[in-house]
Amino acid sequence: MKEYSNGEVTITWEPEKCVHSGVCVKGLGKVFQPKEKPWIKIDAASSDVLVEQVKKCPTGALGYYSDDDSKKIETDSQEQIVEIIPNGPLMVYGNIEVKFADGRKEQISKSSAFCRCGSSQKKPFCDGTHKKISFEG
After folding, report:
1. Which residue range or ranges hold the Iron-binding zinc finger CDGSH type domain (predicted)?
2. 20 to 30 A from 80, CA-CA: which of 24, 59, 106, 114?
């Protein structure tokens, strides 16, 4: 995991979860610049704006935490929400536990993208293959 801090909030990035949907770039192009190093320019937006954009990450590859416990930044919701993305994954928002066929369990918070097209190499999670195969559903 990589971390980028502005002293108020730290943005985390887990590259193995990223499916390069571009939601971050489309929402805050001045912050998220994948062709640059470092690719997250954390000082290009306020902490509140950063957090709101990070919450939109469809896979949970981007996350955040407060650097100062006295500042209250909204924490993960206890509520679970499921959203079907047209021609894309099944998005699950909130804290959940995934139980795999082999018996292992994984705790997931924030958001997760589950494959609907059946072609992901990261099943049950989405890896963006639905775009390559022109999945409709």
Report:
1. 99-136
2. 24
**Closest Cα partner for 13 from 54, 45, 73, 66?**
54
Report how far residue 17's alpha carbon sits from residue 8's, in angstroms, rounded to the nearest whole number: 24
Q: Which residue bears the tokens 């990223």?
A: 18
Give the integer Cα–Cα distance in Å for 118 and 77: 29
| Residue pair 122/109 in contact by the 8 Å Cβ criterion | no
Say if strands 62-66 and 81-84 run parallel, antiparallel, or are unpaired: unpaired
SS3 call for 43: helix
Q: What is the pLDDT of residues 10-44, one digit of tens each?
A: 999 988 888 888 889 999 999 999 999 999 999 99
| Cβ partners under 8 Å of residue 117, min gap 6 | 129, 130, 133, 135, 137
Q: Count CA atoms closer than 13 A to 120's CA, side-chain side.
A: 18
- Domains in the chain (CATH in brackets) are 2-66 (3.30.70), 81-132 (no CATH)
